[in-house]
Amino acid sequence: MSYQKINKISLNGLEVFAQHGFYVEEQLIGGKFVIDIEVETDFADAAKTDQITGTVNYEHLFEIVTTEMRVPSKLLEHVAQRIIDRVIALTVKINKVSLIIKKINPPFAAKIANSSITIEYTKPGHVL
C-alpha cells in the first residue's frame, strides 16, 4: 500500500489588536483579530535531520502575520494578500497556503461573534 505524504505547518488562533476597518472609527479605535494560517510544504528533510532549515519555520509565519497586521488597512482582503505574498516568497517548497482572518465583534447593531475572510493559494500543478 502506498501513502501520500502531506506536511502542514499551522498557527491557529493567533490573537492580535489592529486598526483595520473601512470606517475611520474602526481605524482609530482598532479591534481584536484572530488569524489561522496553514502552510502545506515538504518537510521531509527536517523530519530526517532534525534541522529547521528543512522546513518552514513557524516563527517566520508569526513574524509575517504580526508585522502585516500592524499596517492599518481598510480591507482585510488587502492585509491577507500581503501576508500570502510574503509567505509564498519564503521558499519554493510551499505548495499551498490557507489564511483566515477573523474580526472579532464587528461593528453592527447586533451581536456577531466575528466576520472573516479566507484566502487560499495553491501552487500551479500541485495535486489537491
From TrEMBL:
GO terms for biological process: folic acid biosynthetic process; tetrahydrofolate biosynthetic process. Residues 9-121 form the Dihydroneopterin aldolase/epimerase domain. GO terms for cellular component: cytoplasm. It catalyses: 7,8-dihydroneopterin = 6-hydroxymethyl-7,8-dihydropterin + glycolaldehyde. GO terms for molecular function: dihydroneopterin aldolase activity. Its EC number is 4.1.2.25. It is an enzyme of class 4 (lyase). It comes from the Bacteria. Pfam families: FolB. Belongs to the DHNA family. Catalyzes the conversion of 7,8-dihydroneopterin to 6-hydroxymethyl-7,8-dihydropterin. This is 7,8-dihydroneopterin aldolase. It comes from Solitalea koreensis.
